[in-house]
Amino acid sequence: MANSSSISISNIQLQHITHISDYFFSQGQENTLQKYTNPLDKNPFYRTVPGFYLTPADIVLRNNIIDLSGTFQSPTPSLAYHRAGPRKQILFNPSTVKAAIVTCGGLCPGLNTVIRELVVGLWEMYGVREIFGIKAGYRGFYSYDPVLLNRKMVDDWHKRGGTVLETSRGGFDLNKIVNAIQDHGFNQVYIIGGDGTMRGAVKIFEEVKQRKLYISVVGIPKTVDNDVGIIDRSFGFQTAVEMAQQAINAAHVEAESAVNGIGLVKLMGRSTGHIALHATLSNRDVDCCLIPEIDFYLEGKGGLLEFLESRLKETGHAVLVVAEGAGQDMIPRTESQKTEKDESGNPVFLDVGGWLKSELKNWWNRDHPNELFTIKHIDPTYMIRAVPANATDNSYCTLLAHSAIHGVMAGYTGFVCGPINGNYAYIPVDEIAKAKNKVDTKDHKWSWVRSVSNQPDFIRS
């Protein structure tokens, strides 16, 4: 076994973050841009002691777990990212900054907090006064007039659900968007949205780079499902798990108060089951948790129906939590439904909760025609999406916004910010657009879920 005192980190691959100076100059031009001293130097609320400002040498490791026994190989090379935070020298003169903020896609707790903190951070930390909100998502760049924002206007936005700027899906027209950014004179663009929005941000960044524009583009990944890869978690997730408790508690009361009662709760989670998993762990009243990462089945030995029958005989009631993306391949579809897409380009999912409720009722009527049975289906999706962020997510949204501002002011572009192993980092936006955070059903968390619920593993013999 290796001696831990002799361990050294080598062979690190630092992921490149584009700086405006990387592409702004034509071939043969001197690659230098005027820089400015960070105004935080003179900000009375900050103490810029040694170590306050970060340098390119400050990095965050993606994998910070090392097996000293050598039994399991760590990824080679070790990936690393630039650490997020203020830089001593900045590229943008605050007096000439014209920033645009846009929210795209579905609602998520914390959207208004991110907007508020972007405005407040630009205003208070860097003295920026031209900050604009783009209404109605990507189409708002070319369809609506920008809304001038200020410190006072956004003061209480963190207490509101939804997005004051309004949002929409679709409407992505690359040339119209970049032309509008140029026409309005925006030189900083803050894009808040999910994976589809981040794919759009990649295209905007690439087009800005192709046109050699002095514009910084940054993404702040938003998905209540927590399915964004690389980062520890996405904002709004913890609020969603907290709010899901109310639905599960209601389902438990309904099920417990009936003869052979089942409480069925459908939670968000199109491609991943993180909300369902963490809601199950934190509630403890759930008898079975179904997520997209497992292929459950209804009939036969080890199936869901056999398990529910056993649980009803044992306790007289059961609570079933299902993520919206679970079981989609089992639900009958018409030919048109098989290829249907929403405005963001995502497959349209059918209602697994309604389908499961119908299947359970048919099963009971078939096998227990003369016995009482009650099933209550609760879908809190829009109730959860529309609430304000809780305290933890509010704090998180503030750090995301400020991290984004520091990176943009330093001249970085084409990146997103987020925590990796608890430390905030700058990650290339194209990496985030492609990375997915799936539930690892071989991980201890899923084992914990099964030990809490005693549910089957749905592996056919």
Describe the structure.
The chain has 461 residues and is of the alpha/beta class. It has two domains: 12-234 and 389-434, Rossmann fold (3-Layer(aba) Sandwich), CATH 3.40.50.450; 238-387, Phosphofructokinase domain (Rossmann fold), CATH 3.40.50. 33% of the residues lie in helices and 16% in strands. The chain is built from 13 helices and 16 strands. The strands form three sheets. Strands 1, 3, 4, 6, 7, 8, 9, 10, 15 and 16 form a ten-stranded mixed beta sheet that branches. Helix 7 (304-315) links the parallel strand 12 and strand 13 (317-323). Helix 5 (237-256) crosses helix 6 (274-283). Mean pLDDT is 92; it is low at 1-7.
Q: Which keywords apply here?
A:
single chain, 461 residues, alpha/beta, Rossmann fold, 2 domains, ten-stranded mixed beta sheet, four-stranded parallel beta sheet, 13 helices, 16 strands, elongated, disordered N terminus, 6-phosphofructokinase activity, transferase, metal ion binding, ATP_PFK
Helical residue percent?
25-40%
Please tally the helical runs, counting DSSP H or I stretches of 4 or more residues: 13
Number of strands: 16
What is the CATH class of the largest domain? Alpha Beta
Please name the CATH topology of the largest domain: Rossmann fold
How far do the termini sit from each other?
A: 40 Å
Structural class: alpha/beta
- Reading the helices and strands in chain order gives EEEEEEHEHEHEHEHEHEHEHHEHHEEHH
Total domains, how many? 2
CATH architect. name of the largest domain: 3-Layer(aba) Sandwich
Site (Important for substrate specificity): 196
Function: Catalyzes the phosphorylation of D-fructose 6-phosphate to fructose 1,6-bisphosphate by ATP, the first committing step of glycolysis.
InterPro entries: ATP_PFK, PFKA, Phosphofructokinase_dom, PKF_sf, PyroP-dep_PFK_TP0108
Main location: cytoplasm
